Amino acid sequence: QVQLVESGGGLVQPGGSLRLSCAASGIIFSINAMGWYRQAPGKERELVAAITTGGTTNYADSVKDRFTISRDNAKNRVYLQMNSLKPEDTAVYYCKFQTHGRYDYWGQGTQVTVSS
């Protein structure tokens, strides 16, 4: 079964930057939207950013102007550049691919910790 694999998480100081990457372990046909979600302890999973095949993006208000989502359609990869990180950005970050048939693939998550 095809899985998504995230990388790039870690520990960073407030104000720092990280770049998350997500790739599929195999071939996924007919991918539509790609996105990043996060879940902090005791909170529900929330959408951070999403991008369509055509490049239309959507961001949570809390990350606008700090995070940038991008994708490589040829390689079926999605990225999240995170700048000016804050302690409240601490969470497990998950990537998701949604096909045109509305099937969702999820990654296992990567931990991002923002702390001095």
Write a concise synopsis of the structure shown.
This protein is mostly beta strands. Helix content is 0%, strand content 53%.
Architecture overview:
By secondary structure, the protein is mostly beta strands. The chain is built from no helices and eleven strands. Strands 2, 4, 5, 6, 9, 10 and 11 form a seven-stranded mixed sheet that branches. Strands 1-3-8-7 form a four-stranded antiparallel sheet, with no helix packed on it. A hairpin with a 6-residue loop joins strand 4 and strand 5. The model has no long low-confidence stretch (mean pLDDT 95).
Topology readout:
Layout: E1 4-7, E2 10-12, E3 18-24, E4 31-39, E5 46-51, E6 57-59, E7 67-72, E8 77-82, E9 91-99, E10 104-106, E11 110-114
Parallel strand pairs: 2-11
Antiparallel strand pairs: 1-3, 3-8, 4-5, 4-9, 5-6, 7-8, 9-10, 9-11
- Model regions low in confidence, pLDDT < 50 over at least 5 residues: none
Order of helices and strands: EEEEEEEEEEE
Report the portion of residues in β strands.
Answer: over 45%
What is the helix content? under 10%
Span of the ends, CA to CA: 39 Å
Mean pLDDT score: 95
Shape: globular
The major sheet is characterized as: 7 strands, mixed
